[in-house]
Amino acid sequence: MEITPEIKERLKQLEEKYTAMGQDMNSYLDGLLHSKVVTYWDYIKLDILLNLQTQKTPFEDEYIFIVYHQITELYFNLILHAIDIIADDVNLTAEKYLVQLKRINLYFEQLVHSFDVMIEGMDHDQFAKFRMALLPASGFQSAQFRMIEICSTGIDNLIHISARKQLAKSEDIHEKYKYLYWKRGATELATGRKTLTLLQFEKKYTNKFIHLIRDFYHKNLWEQYAQLTPEDRANEELIYTMRKYDVLANILWPLAHYKSAVRYLQKDKADIAATGGTNWQEYLPPKYQLIMFFPELWSEQEKEDWGRKTKLDEFMNIK
Ligand code: HEM
């Protein structure tokens, strides 16, 4: 076989790479010699991935329910991946911020548009039956959803609207954590008591969330924006993209999700209360949660209208 100039150049680059790491290139070439070629099914662990759906019931639509939650968690993970890149960049510019934030918006747009898989894509009666086999598990126990919130904004913006003013001056993260808005979710409608869903979730993740709140205190998405140069902070495309993220994450996805609850769950309060149901009708609508990652980027009128409009265009005031 002829050793072409290209091959020679590659070998020279490999030599430089491994020498720089104090490694012997030949050992790596030996490794290459013996290693199996990569296959698509090995690379993405396809067999493992397609064996991660363990149904609790024989209802065929439960499979859709599992897979769509897994798809959502993978997108949540992509969002956290992009947030980490912004959070850890010590030479952040508006341009670099925009690259990652546009990707985050792409992921959230996929999640908003695909929620019809849930809303339109399952049989109502099958859902009513298999859902009972899943209790008290709920998407409410999605830790990544909370992590996205904690890594996007300061803890003060995640406190329940009724306690925000009172806790604004407190430095006590543990105290503030107690009043996060979602502590009012997954609560029994009849008694106001926390459900097992919420109690299990708090037990499993409280330490992790408190640690993350501390870790992202000075590098969450808002803080990273606030630390840009005045010129970069005035970048209109960045401001537009941040507002879009706020609307996708805190209005459009919650509204799509709320639609699925309206489609599948009992709506008569008496029935809900009688069956130990939760306060989801008061809790889920974004106009009640009033969560904004970047309140500084919205006018008082826009804040008042929060969650009361449903179309991105309307909210972004695009003429
Ligand atoms: C048929 C589809 C669905 C229904 C009927 C539904 C129902 C609910 C309800 C009622 C709640 C409020 C907590 C409670 O009262 O139990 C909730 C919360 C939640 N669910 Fe779902 N859900 C569905 C699909 C999903 C999917 C696919 C995900 C993706 C991970 C998800 C993630 C969440 C999250 C993150 C919360 C907390 C939302 C918040 O705190 O604002 N749900 N869900």
Describe the secondary-structure layout.
Blueprint: H1 5-20, H2 25-34, H3 40-43, H4 46-49, H5 60-87, H6 94-114, H7 116-119, H8 124-134, H9 143-152, H10 164-167, H11 173-178, H12 196-215, H13 221-226, H14 230-233, H15 236-264, H16 269-274, H17 280-283, H18 286-289, H19 300-304, H20 312-316
This protein binds protoporphyrin IX containing FE (HEM).
Protoporphyrin IX containing FE binds at residues 68-69, 72, 118, 138-140, 142, 145, 182, 185-186, 197, 254, 257, 260-261, 264-265, 278, 280, 284.
Describe this structure in words.
The chain has helices spanning 5-20, 25-34, 40-43, 46-49, 60-87, 94-114, 116-119, 124-134, 143-152, 164-167, 173-178, 196-215, 221-226, 230-233, 236-264, 269-274, 280-283, 286-289, 300-304, 312-316. Helix 6 (94-114) packs parallel to helix 15 (236-264) and helix 9 (143-152) runs parallel beside helix 12 (196-215). It is mainly α. It is built from 20 helices and no strands. It folds into two domains: 5-35, no CATH class; 61-314, Methane Monooxygenase Hydroxylase, Chain G, domain 1 (Up-down Bundle). The model has no long low-confidence stretch (mean pLDDT 93). The radius of gyration is 24 Å and the shape is globular. It is 63% helix and 0% strand.
What's a quick, concise take on this entry?
By secondary structure, the chain is an all-alpha fold.
List keywords for this structure.
319 residues, mainly alpha, Methane Monooxygenase Hydroxylase, Chain G, domain 1, 2 domains, 20 helices, 63% helix, globular, binds protoporphyrin IX containing FE
